[in-house]
Write a structure and sequence with these properties.
five-stranded mixed beta sheet, alpha/beta, 42% helix, 338 residues, 18% strand, binds 5'-O-[(R)-(carboxyoxy)(hydroxy)phosphoryl]adenosine, 10 helices, binds zinc ion
């Protein structure tokens, strides 16, 4: 009999449910109900509003995912859910729905780390090859994760302050580009050149990055120009910020492959959709060592979604690593604590 996993993701501002055919390794549905239009009014994600919207949407999204997969509840073999890291109230909604389904259907519950989901999103494009270096770049995290083997995670570098996606969002906000800022800066940069001079932040540790100083430098430069009544070339400012933001992480990845003998480098998280990062990381790594494969997640699977959660749960399902029904959320769960 075929086995199907239903995945649920609600860690931030997308309510998402997917159905994954575990037997044939095929995604059957991936419904994403985004709250972005609501949060845009506030210039960022409002946690309390996010939880309420998840509550309103979750049951419909579950129904739709099953409908699109042409399955019923009784066809399911396991429920996978993001139990952290993320917004506490938002995570609770997905987890409670998952626990209720696992209890009622008497099938296993699988607890998935959100960033592991982002990493395994790559395997919709190509299988992961170990040892592997995962470049995790999202709105909440920026980490270089060394994976010696399947489901083993060692953080070898991290941000000392803001996450890269967070800095994109903050810089875009100052420039009045709206939320989320990443795609807006990505687009504007295409019509600009990195002509503004921005500082290169100092970091401790070989593979750490820092984004707060860069963000402050952009804000100060903009205020300075405004005070002098000088015009700000928005596209050039975006391109200058992006060149530094992406340049910094790519430089660390290039350095890390000297020390870590990896077969593959993969990019994961919302910022993996960034066109400049996708181009730069391929070019710089190929120039340094053409034997290392560079993997990028498909664009549809870069932002938060449940397909990546269901996909990442396959390893847990295979190894019968089931969660207990008293599972709670873990908003600050580190990927090293699996
Ligand atoms: O992974 P994700 O959807 O949510 C978290 O887990 O945080 O990442 C969202 C982040 C936001 O900061 C958003 O601005 C950024 O990813 N992002 C981008 C692009 N698309 C989304 N950043 C840069 N360029 C993009 N094209
Ligand atoms: Zn995410």
């Amino acid at each position: 009999m075929k086995q199907y996993i239903l995945g649920i993701e609600s860690s931030c501002d997308e309510t998402s449910v997917a159905v994954y055919d575990y037997t044939d390794n095929k995604l059957l549905s991936n419904i994403v109900s985004s709250q972005i239009s609501t949060h845009t009014k506030y210039g960022g994600v409002m946690p309390e509003i996010a939880s309420r919207l998840h509550i309103e949407k979750i049951n419909y999204v579950i129904k739709e995912a099953l409908y699109e997969a042409n399955l019923t509840f009784n066809d399911l073999s396991a429920i996978a859910v993001t139990s952290g890291p993320g917004l506490i109230g938002a995570l609770h909604v997905g987890l409670q729905a998952a626990k209720t389904l696992a209890l009622a259907l008497d099938i296993p519950l699988l607890s998935v780390h959100h960033l592991v989901g982002h990493i395994y999103a790559n395997s919709f494009e190509q299988e992961l090859k170990f040892p592997c270096l995962a470049v995790v770049v999202s709105g909440g995290h920026t980490e270089l994760v060394y994976m010696k083997e399947e489901y083993s995670f060692e953080i070898i570098g991290t941000t000392q302050d803001d996450a890269i996606g967070e800095s994109y969002d903050k810089v875009a906000r100052v420039m009045g580009l709206g939320y989320p800022g990443g795609p807006k800066i990505d687009k504007a940069s295409k019509d600009g050149s990195p002509t503004y001079s921005l500082p290169k932040p100092h970091t401790e540790g070989k593979y750490n990055v820092s984004y707060s100083g860069l963000k402050t430098a952009v804000i100060n430069l903009i205020h300075n120009k405004e005070q002098k009544g000088e015009e700000i070339r928005v596209n050039d400012m975006c391109a200058s910020f992006q060149a530094r933001a992406v340049g910094m992480i790519v430089e660390k990845v290039v350095a890390a492959i000297d020390e870590y003998d990896v077969k593959q480098v993969i990019v994961a998280g919302g910022v993996a959709a960034n066109s400049y990062l996708r181009k730069e990381i391929k070019e710089k790594l190929n120039a340094k060592n053409p034997d290392i494969e560079v993997g990028l997640p498909p664009l549809w699977c870069c932002g938060d979604n449940a397909a990546m959660i269901a996909k990442a749960s396959a390893y847990l399902f295979k190894n019968k690593m089931y969660a207990s029904l008293d599972l709670g959320v873990n908003p600050n769960w580190s990927i090293e604590e699996l």
